[in-house]
Design goal:
This protein has 20 helices and 18 strands. The protein has 587 residues and is α/β, with parallel strands linked by helices. α8 runs parallel beside α18, α8 packs parallel to α19 and α16 (455-466) runs parallel beside α20 (572-586). The two termini are 40 Å apart.
């Protein structure tokens, strides 16, 4: 996996500053390998024992592979992006090495208990602030239903990588034929114009869209298309292959380090977008085909596949986790000390939990620190000023006690729900509050990123400030490579999504993002500039074949935007003006 970007903290200012990146705080004092393990209660003791069983030894750190296994053992199934967010934010808060893929025990406890609480509460997916009216979406669905009645329907559309790949002919088609499943194969030896409409109809009416992103091609158009289909919430099965590295041959050309990074980031973005809809991504074609047959046979969604299908499910992929650790870190380091006394810890604990540590909880912490039986502390004055805590121990305390007061509430909720079902009695409830319209931003400045990409600073931001509009600038925090849930939440809490794909970037990730949110039915404006053989990307001139591949993705994005009624521009200033004009309509 590539090196993750620096964390972008999800704060929403009342007025749009030039940059939304916040300065990094003081590093957390506890790094992986610390010998300290505070187990103040049953939850942390249980997690400690589970870690010992999985590792077969005592350890104070949790690696990527062990983390996903431990969470799965507890029925918690985060997406790849959520796991990256945990590791990334932990690394940033502690100022650990950029190559570190470890959590401390306290960080692991915190993330695990936060996930469990969200699962138990069945935390709903936040609404998209940029979502267009239901009318426009229903019109699109009616058009698709009309097409499905007048067109031949195939069960599977075989999308994704084409020449020079042979996965359709050698693997997919024989297996589908063996199982009597009809399919449409867009890869033909002799192409003609009439096939464009036939392929489009087959794609729109197929029961399952089967996409393979093979490393022997650049996959640009396929990535953009798969991202769109995930946004449309179609039955989508995606098989993803990884590029081997710089120097790999694609159509006979060795790709550079920068192109390898751009293509890999594109795959990561597509994976994160697909998993954000709860759809698993496969690594092997035969496995994906067998699951496709089950989806058709039992009329399932890909999201319904589970462990019995040898598929790790993805649950609540929109949950943000990094912000929880950031909040703890900021509360702790505000004390300006590497360790704080238990007396001092009561203040940051209340900041992050909105409740006080009880006498019983303080006794449990003191007993755990001093290796005493808690009964020995009864009737004695607790030495709160003499017991010192590291940040990792503070994480353990929050993980142990933060949600305990919710347990009794959950039991009461179950009891009252049973009463309601039996005798129809209901307690008065507060109405759910809609998202505060003043809490979001007007425009998301998405699209091409890079040190030489200056359209935001030169054109967009001055225009937005002139009109008094707020914005989110993802370039300010340099969050790229993965679509972390915190980053996605900032995007989805904007009223208009502007994506500018410049002719000085390959733009793979940006095109996938734009395509996905068009598929979701959001209020999007796109500006697409085609690359030429004269285009220079980060000092590299593109080959003729590369120009063709990257323009194919741009063409797909423009065509799909036009079909969905999304404004498409070549001139950046005109695109920004269009986004500005859309803002009053969405307030």
């Amino acid at each position: 996996m590539g090196v993750l970007p620096r964390v972008c903290r999800p704060s929403i200012p009342s007025t749009p500053p030039p940059s939304l990146a916040l300065p990094r705080g003081q590093p957390c004092p506890t790094a992986p390998g610390s010998s300290r393990t505070l187990l103040p209660g049953s939850q942390t003791r249980s997690l400690r024992e589970e870690l010992r069983v999985v590792l077969g030894r005592d350890d104070h750190t949790v690696s990527w592979a062990v983390l996903t296994r431990l969470l799965a053992n507890k029925g918690l199934y985060p997406s790849k992006a959520q796991v990256h967010e945990m590791l990334h934010v932990a690394r940033e808060c502690s100022a650990r090495d950029a190559a570190s893929h470890l959590l401390t025990f306290g960080e692991f406890c915190l993330f695990t208990t936060e996930l469990r609480q969200c699962y138990d509460k069945e935390t709903p997916r936040p609404a998209l602030l940029s979502k267009l009216s239901d009318k426009s979406c229903s019109d699109k669905k009616r058009s698709e239903r009309k097409m499905s009645k007048s067109s031949p329907k195939y069960e599977v559309f075989l999308g994704g990588s084409c020449n020079p790949t042979t996965w359709r002919e050698n693997v997919a088609i024989p297996m589908l034929k063996d199982q009597g499943i009809s399919f449409y194969n867009p890869q033909v030896s002799h192409w003609e114009e009439a096939l464009v409409e036939l392929e489009y109809q087959a794609k729109q009416t197929a029961s399952v869209l089967f996409f393979v992103l093979d490393r022997n091609t650049r996959n640009v158009a396929s990535m953009v298309e798969a991202a769109y289909m995930a946004g449309c919430q179609r039955k989508l099965v995606v098989v993803m292959d990884s590029y081997t590295g710089p120097g790999q041959l694609i159509t006979g050309e060795a790709i550079s380090e920068l192109e390898y990074q751009d293509l890999t980031n594109g795959l990561h973005t597509v994976q994160d977008l697909v998993e954000r809809q709860g759809i698993p991504v496969f690594g092997e074609i035969n496995h994906a085909l067998n699951c496709t047959a089950k989806i058709l046979r039992e009329n399932l969604r890909p999201q319904d596949l589970g462990l019995e299908d040898h598929v790790q499910p993805i649950k609540y992929p929109y949950l943000q986790l990094g912000d929880k650790l950031i909040k703890l870190h900021d509360a702790f380091v505000n004390t300006n000390s590497k360790q704080i006394s238990l007396a001092e810890a009561r203040v940051p604990y209340k900041v992050v939990t909105n409740k006080d540590l009880t006498t019983e909880e303080l006794q449990a912490i003191v007993a755990a620190k001093k290796g005493m039986d808690i009964q020995q502390l009864n009737g004695t004055e607790l030495p709160l000023n003499d017991v010192f805590l590291t940040f990792d121990e503070f994480c353990c305390i929050v993980a142990e006690f933060k949600n305990q007061h919710l347990e009794s509430r959950r039991v009461w909720d179950v009891f009252t729900h049973s009463l309601q079902k039996v005798i129809g009695w209901a307690l008065p409830r507060r109405p759910l509050r809609p998202i505060n319209s003043t809490g979001g931003r007007d425009i998301y400045l998405g699209g091409s990123l890079g040190s030489r990409v200056t359209w935001r600073e030169d054109i967009a931001i001055p225009m937005l400030l002139k009109h008094g509009l707020s914005y989110y600038n993802p370039a300010a925090s340099a969050c790229s490579g993965r679509l972390l849930p915190m980053e996605a939440a900032l995007m989805e809490h904007s009223r208009v999504l502007l994506f500018v794909i410049t002719d000085s970037t390959r733009g793979v990730s940006s095109m996938a993002l734009a395509s996905h949110y068009i598929g979701l039915g959001c209020n999007v404006v796109v500006c697409v500039q085609m690359v030429t053989e004269d285009s220079v990307v980060n000092g590299e001139r593109l080959s003729r074949l590369a120009v063709k591949d990257y323009n194919r993705g741009r063409t797909y994005l423009k065509d799909q935007a036009n079909k969905d009624g999304i404004p498409v521009f070549i001139n950046i200033q005109e695109a920004v003006e269009c986004a500005i004009n859309k803002c009053p309509m969405t307030r």
